[in-house]
Automatic annotation (TrEMBL):
<keyword id="KW-0520">NAD</keyword>
<protein>
    <submittedName>
        <fullName>Deoxyhypusine synthase</fullName>
    </submittedName>
</protein>
<dbReference type="GO" id="GO:0005737">
    <property type="term" value="C:cytoplasm"/>
</dbReference>
<dbReference type="InterPro" id="IPR036982">
    <property type="entry name" value="Deoxyhypusine_synthase_sf"/>
</dbReference>
<dbReference type="Pfam" id="PF01916">
    <property type="entry name" value="DS"/>
</dbReference>
<comment type="similarity">
    <text>Belongs to the deoxyhypusine synthase family.</text>
</comment>
<dbReference type="InterPro" id="IPR029035">
    <property type="entry name" value="DHS-like_NAD/FAD-binding_dom"/>
</dbReference>
<dbReference type="GO" id="GO:0034038">
    <property type="term" value="F:deoxyhypusine synthase activity"/>
</dbReference>
<dbReference type="InterPro" id="IPR002773">
    <property type="entry name" value="Deoxyhypusine_synthase"/>
</dbReference>
Length: 323
């Protein structure tokens, strides 16, 4: 037996460790039965370089659709462009306001212990603006992930890669042609830039970017295509917020609003979160609450891992890869 699997099988007997192992086993069982897995990413997982462990999983055909925050979509690209220029700040808890100003003035945008250089963002902007203008001229719109895929396919862009493309989960998703839903796409650096371009008149319309409701329609059709073929789809959620709540709602929408009462619920559910239920947060809601919303069913395998996703998710991904 391989190293990570052997370690987890031997040591992960109780509490969150046991829940982690059970979730990995159940994911594997779902795939073995012909099922598929939908993954959601909240937080700053791309800046945490989740692509190192997630990209191989996508390439291996163990992930079939993704929903993430807009920041996760763009920050995977920023990391691909300029990871060697990132600056680690392990003592971030001790930074004074003056030290934060110094980082800001250097063009270092801090995400916890990691600073993303401004020039990584500017590289992406340059190429995306050209793509947005092409769509504007053609009178068409595309989803945010479709622009990212077009950008990554540009040989000139590929010359800017400074880490192996195998460390990019967006690159892996592009190679598999997976949908990457990004509800609230405007809530990111590139979304802010796009808005400013429209406001300043450099772009004439917001319609260059397809809307959130169009993304929901696309996801509903994606899900129903699988349901019609008898393919069960699981839901693996990293963190909470809109990255998780947007896609999981597609099932109750299909059942209650499209009146397809025989549509299947999600066939598996796992969430990694350090949130709690005490403040009524979606991020901390226990899986059984989702039964009342027609998201999960009584017999859906359910797992709630109360831990740090930057530690737990790579372990699960490595387990599934047989490492």
């Amino acid at each position: 037996m391989s190293t990570v699997r052997a370690f987890m099988e031997k040591n992960y007997k109780h509490f969150n460790a046991r829940e982690t192992l059970d979730a990995a086993r159940a994911w594997e069982e779902l795939l073995d039965k012909g099922g598929q897995m939908f993954v959601t990413l909240a937080g700053a997982m791309s800046t945490a370089e989740i692509g190192i462990s997630l990209a191989p999983l996508i390439e291996a055909g163990k992930v079939h659709g993704i929903c993430c925050t807009a920041a996760n979509l763009e920050e995977d690209l920023f990391n691909l462009f300029d990871n060697p220029d990132y600056r680690l700040v392990p003592h971030y808890n001790d930074l004074s306001p003056e030290e934060e100003v110094a980082l800001r003035d250097e063009g270092m945008n801090r995400v916890t212990d990691t600073c993303i250089p401004e020039w990584a963002m500017l590289k992406a902007e340059k190429y995306l603006i050209d793509l947005w203008k092409e769509s504007e001229a053609a009178g068409t719109g595309r989803f945010p992930w479709e622009y990212m895929y077009a950008l990554l396919d540009n040989p000139e862009v590929q010359q800017h890669f400074r880490v192996p493309k195998e460390h990019s989960w967006v690159w892996a998703a592009k190679e598999k042609n997976l949908p990457i839903y990004t509800p609230g796409w405007e809530d990111c650096t590139l979304g802010n830039k796009f808005t400013a371009l429209v406001m300043s008149g450099r772009l004439s319309t917001h319609n260059v970017i397809k809307t959130g409701t169009q993304q929901m329609e696309h996801l509903a059709k994606w899900y129903m295509e699988r349901a019609d073929k008898g393919i069960p789809v699981g839901f693996f959620q990293v963190g909470g917020g809109i990255a998780g709540d947007f896609p999981i709602c597609v099932v109750p929408m299909i059942i209650q609003d499209l009146h397809k009462e025989d549509a299947p619920h999600w066939a598996y559910f796992c969430q990694i979160s350090d949130s709690t239920t005490s403040y009524g947060s979606y991020s901390g809601a226990v899986p059984n609450e989702k039964i009342t919303w027609h998201k999960l069913d009584v017999d859906t395998p359910k797992f709630m891992i109360n831990s740090d996703a930057s530690i737990v998710a790579p372990l699960i991904f490595s387990y599934l890869m047989g490492e």
